[in-house]
Amino acid sequence: MEKKQKSHFPFRINILFFSVFLLFSVLILRLGFVQIVYGENFKRDLERNEDITIKNPVPRGKMLDRNYKEIVNNIPKRAITYTNMGSDQEEMLDTARKLAKLIVKKTDKLTEWDKKDFWILKYPESADAKISESENELYKAKKLKDKDLYEIKIKRITKQELKQLTQEDLEVAAIFREFRNGYKFTPQIVKNEDVTDKEFAVVNENLQSLPGVDTTTDWERSYNFDNTLKSVLGKVTKSDEGLPADQLHYFLSKGYNRNDRVGKSYLEAQYEDVLHGYKSRVKNVTDTAGNVVDTEVVYDGQRGKDLVLSIDMELQKKVEKIIEQELWSLKRLPGTHFLDRAYVVLMDPKTGEILTMAGKRIVRDEKTGRTEMIDDALGTFTTTYNVGSAVKGATVLTGYKTGAITPNTYLSDVPIRIKSTPEKKSWMYLGTLNDINALKLSSNVYMFRTAIRIGEGNYFPDQPLSLNPNSFDIIRNSFASFGLGTRTGIDLPNEQAGFKGSSRLPGFLLDLVIGQYDTYSPMQMAQYVSTIANGGYRMQPHMVKEIREPINNTAEVGPVFKQIHPKVLNMIDMKQEWIRRVQLGFKKVFQEPGGTAYPYFKGASYSPAGKTGTAEGFYDGPNRWRYGKEPPGVINLSLVSYAPSYDPQVAMAVLVPWAYTGQSENKANFRIGRRVMDTFFQIKQK
């Protein structure tokens, strides 16, 4: 009988179980080791929540003049801030009470609503008692919401009850208001005005018991030249303003916080992307309870880049002083009761750099009743006026271009008489003259006859005059190529193009070509005369010359980040011989006896050239409402010039609106213009 074969199956099962036992034993030992040795570390990692990056603001870039003199800088100031890291209302209120014992907080910004809201927090039982049983029933039935009950309480708090709030309560309320105005994980300034050394130190010492509170260095804009050019430099929102409401989404999309300060006007706004800098970034790691367990500085931040302006502040200040002196002096003359402003623009005709943009305006202080002079540099490009004969250079060149006249065309200065239209004439009968002498002597009639030829009209004295309706467009388009009646393209917002008269009656075309129909700004006048001075290139005017990298904690000028190169907007479609002929006429205006500017500029060593302007208009200033539908007639005075005539280094526009009424010896345009040109070349020689 064969012996039964022994089965190996039980043995294999035992081996398998034993192996599993060993593996589990090793796993348990390993888990025990990990639990004992690394357990606390893993627990902390498990309790960690998301990383939260807080962006802290940095100072804005500086503004310097063309010679690197500081115009705008930042003054450091102590500040106390609060960052809500997830605290609830009770925690915030508790922190506000503690902080109120350490600092003095002004309460002037507290509204009645703020006070009532705080009263509810301080007297919750009394506030709840203001809700009737029926209102509570509606609330339980979900027909009223928490918001509804809150508003009912607010409305029922009396003024007598608000008097229960002490001065200490109001300070707590003011601090709590700042806490709540902030956004989660975004630093909110609680106090940055008049923070004393003691307040700064004592808050620093108690930061551990003031969750979310911190001390830091804030800043505010400082102006080294007082109010000089301040209206153009622009403004920055205050710490309690934050982002402008009308641009909120734009700035949020660019990574700004809601309470960030930004440029809100002119250069500060135009170059916000350059001036605002790069915020410092601090990464806070919080646990599941929202407590900060680790802090890491990700980026130290960098203040904004610096703007180097094309302005010469020494020249700017002197030009402003000239305007002020002349305005006050002119106000003593009869017929100057409407005179309240004057403007000067100095521009490099070859590059478009603005060397000076000065404006001054006389206003009455509503509180004191006294008159004072304020900066109105903005008016050089935001206000427009009839400028008179200063535009005649563009008229002559338009006449050449259209074939209405040719160089050395002679025309009679006999007055123009159109049926049913007042006689149109020059300031006196000037005989028969050519184009150059028409500019020198400022003949209106020469320009009228040129306009009639442009309009393809047949003029007969005392008869109706019919012109091509397109002649208005022809002349205006030509004027625009010089910069008249169109935006100059200056790197500032809110530039005005001017008013274009709507009527197309023939008489108004004649007014157009002598500068008494459409309106132009001083900046347009400067661009126009620069175009003639440089041989036909319309240069884009610009205030910023360079953008420089900042160097922190030093007054040194950083390396160039970007240079603003001259930009030609267009070249006028004119022959060089035509332009040279108008340049010759402009030179005779200033340098030859009989020229309209010669009495005031004779003997000038810098070889000036240009054109004078006197415009009859109607007063449309701030007090026009007093005169109903018939405003009084006024005279606007203008002057455009450049020098030296053979190699222009500066172009100038002077405009004095509403200079006088009736007859006057007021020559404000000449007096201001001569003093300004003298000053420019005196500084240049230094």
From TrEMBL:
Domain Penicillin-binding protein transpeptidase: 343-677
Keywords of the record: Cell membrane, Cell shape, Cell wall biogenesis/degradation, Membrane, Peptidoglycan synthesis, Transmembrane, Transmembrane helix
Coiled-coil intervals, chain numbering: none
Source species: Bacillus xiapuensis
InterPro entries, alphabetized: Beta-lactam/transpept, Beta-lactam/transpept-like, PBP_dimer, PBP_dimer_sf, PCN-bd_Tpept
The protein's name: serine-type D-Ala-D-Ala carboxypeptidase
Location in the cell: Cell membrane; Membrane
Principal subcellular localisation of the protein: membrane
Pathway: Cell wall biogenesis; peptidoglycan biosynthesis
Catalytic reactions of this protein: Preferential cleavage: (Ac)2-L-Lys-D-Ala-|-D-Ala. Also transpeptidation of peptidyl-alanyl moieties that are N-acyl substituents of D-alanine
Transmembrane domains' residue ranges: 12-38
One Pfam family in the UniProt entry: Transpeptidase
Record-listed E.C. numbers: 3.4.16.4
Family assignment from sequence similarity: Belongs to the transpeptidase family.
Membrane topology label: Single-pass membrane protein
Entry-linked Gene3D superfamilies: DD-peptidase/beta-lactamase superfamily, Penicillin-binding protein 2a (Domain 2), Penicillin-binding protein, N-terminal non-catalytic domain, head sub-domain
UniProt domain Penicillin-binding protein dimerisation: residue ranges: 56-295
